[in-house]
Design goal:
mainly alpha, about 0% strand, about 375 residues
Length: about 375
């Protein structure tokens, strides 16, 4: 999957300014997928597995309420099987192609390019990690204190959560369409891109307003010693943003080309397709024993099959929260061991055995919740 396109489109802050900013500039085309897709995907899941169970209003730890309709589940199920690490080289190539083709070679441009590449290497569903990395770049670039960096990180998370909450239906619907087509190894065409651009038009003012708020937030924290660098970065950003805005109008008119998104060398877009997946293969599971971020789907399914009452639902939620917390504690600090394991092997690999054991415990404890009189509804 050309990787970033949809997701990286979310957190690439063009100047080291706001992941939002790059999302609008470089991303609108650099990510070959349009801003919407990045926003939708990246905010799909946070770095904290426990966040997937929450259904409250957006907050800094849970930027996206899960009550946003079937588009979320469909997109999430599709995204589960993506090998992001394998996609990173394609993402980087597209980013480099975009900057080179447009002559974005000034120091501020080069910094933006470096930052986008770095952040794009983090899977978009790890929104927390992406925003954390972005905030580290910004703090280093402009000499922000740790307190300022932490505040900025929270503000970015809030802005993204709010934006997605307002536009979830459009974002996830288009992201799912784009991902599914990519999964089928079908290249995009100008007509399809025009459709996406037209659907995106109503969001443009919202996107621009969000971006400006974030730029203002950063600017207010920048000290006099870094103001010159910040002003130069903003100027470079405005240049790129102006170009992208003009290109989006062209795309809406059906005048898109793969090179516009740096995809001229993309294996799918150029027709050099790898073998297609087996069309008769079963659909991806809604939950995976090695992935705590998917366990809530199992709990929801279990509650529905046994028609849990309020008290039982509360118990199930408590069990889930405990097990996810324990899984997060185990996985924390073990990325060097866990991350290299190919996705397809995590269901059996020894490194993930403790995580799978926790899922088994979750299942066993849920099995004990229904009364003897509660008969399960046959699974759909």
């Amino acid at each position: 999957m050309a990787g970033e396109r949809w997701l990286a489109a979310i957190i690439d802050w063009t100047v080291g300014l706001s992941n939002q900013a790059l999302t609008m500039t470089s991303n609108r085309h650099v990510v070959r997928f349009v801003l919407c897709y990045g926003l939708a995907a990246a905010a799909l899941l946070t770095a904290n597995p426990a966040a997937a169970q929450k259904t409250d209003e957006p907050d800094e730890k849970n930027p996206l309420p899960m009550r946003v309709g079937p588009e979320v589940e469909g997109f999430r199920n599709t995204a589960q099987t993506f090998d992001w690490d394998a996609e990173v080289p394609n993402i980087h190539r597209s980013i480099d192609n975009i900057f080179k083709a447009n002559g974005w070679t000034e120091e501020a441009d080069r910094y933006a390019q470096y930052m986008v590449r770095d952040v794009a290497a983090i899977p978009p569903w790890q929104l927390g990690k992406r925003i954390e990395r972005m905030s580290e770049h910004v703090a280093s670039r402009y000499g922000l204190t740790e307190e300022q960096r932490t505040h900025l990180q929270g503000r970015v998370m809030m802005e993204f959560g709010s934006f997605i909450g307002r536009n979830a239906k459009t974002l996830f619907a288009q992201a799912s369409e784009a991902l599914n087509q990519r999964a089928q190894h079908k290249p995009y065409d100008a007509e399809q891109i025009a459709k996406w651009m037209k659907a995106y038009q109503p969001l443009r003012k919202d996107v621009d307003a969000t971006m400006e708020r974030l730029l203002k937030e950063i600017g207010s924290a920048v000290g006099p010693d870094a103001k010159e660098v910040f002003d130069r970065d903003v100027k470079a950003f405005r240049k790129r943003d102006k170009h992208v805005t003009a290109m989006m109008d062209r795309w809406a008119e059906g005048k898109w080309t793969p090179a516009d998104w740096g995809m001229q060398d993309d294996p799918i877009q150029s027709g050099k397709l790898p073998p297609l997946p087996d069309p008769n293969a079963p659909p991806p599971p809604k939950w995976l024993a090695h992935d705590p971020g998917t366990w809530w789907a199992y709990v929801v399914d279990f509650k529905a099959r046994f028609k849990f009452d309020a008290a039982q639902s509360t118990t199930a939620k408590s069990i889930h929260a405990e097990l996810v917390e324990r899984a997060a504690a185990y996985m924390s600090g073990r990325e060097e061991v866990l991350k290299p394991v190919p996705i397809a092997e995590r269901g059996k690999h020894a490194a993930y055995a403790p995580v799978r054991a926790l899922f088994a415990e979750l299942c066993a404890r849920l099995d004990a919740v229904p009364t003897t009189g509660q008969r399960p509804v046959p699974p759909r």
